[in-house]
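Progress against Task 2.4 (sequence-to-structure conversion) is shown through the following example record, which the project officer requested during the mid-term review.
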Amino acid sequence: MIFRQRLSPVTWNWLSYLIRKPKMIRYYFHWRNSLKKEHSPLSDKFPWMVYGAVDWLESYLNLEMQVFEWGSGGSSLFFASRVRSVVSVEHDPDWHTVVSQRLGQFDINNVNCILCEPERTDALMKIYASTDERYQGMSFHRYAKTIDVYPDSNFDLVVVDGRARVGCINHALSKVRIGGFLLLDDSDREEYERGKNLMSGWARHRFYGPSSYNRIFTATTIWKKPLL
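Structure tokens generated for the chain above:
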């Protein structure tokens, strides 16, 4: 007990995590560096999600795959070097410009970064709403349905890490190929329960633990699409 009291909560959490998953020690030093002000997901070309999920992605992705993601940034650059093509949908015009410029600086040409801003509406469906107060009364319906233009079973991986995640999951289900995967970041948040329920019957792998650029532990869940 005295030993634990001498450690910060985040250090104790890391220690407990590594006792259970010793191979993840290689991410500890990455995490330490990620907290420094000169580091960011975009500069490091690294996803802002649980390290266990990143480790899984490293083992799963290959250069023949197609990925779709809601929420652009470090993950867009991470995927670009590991798969054939990436579609990345972003709602914020300023951030879209930053990411697009960074893609150009690195001469990355296999990422289609799409800007789709929310729209103000008087008939807002809850699944297309954002919990962020800045977007009260605004609909992310167009944003969620950007994936609709692609054929069914088109993507090896769909990443839901942006706005209106329940709505995005609803539109993504048919677009994941059989045997492919859907990833929901921050899956421990209660407001995503309705979306998680849509994947009943899909095999689930939940990763809980530390993530880069963050001092708290969070969850990322990945579901595998079953045979019809």
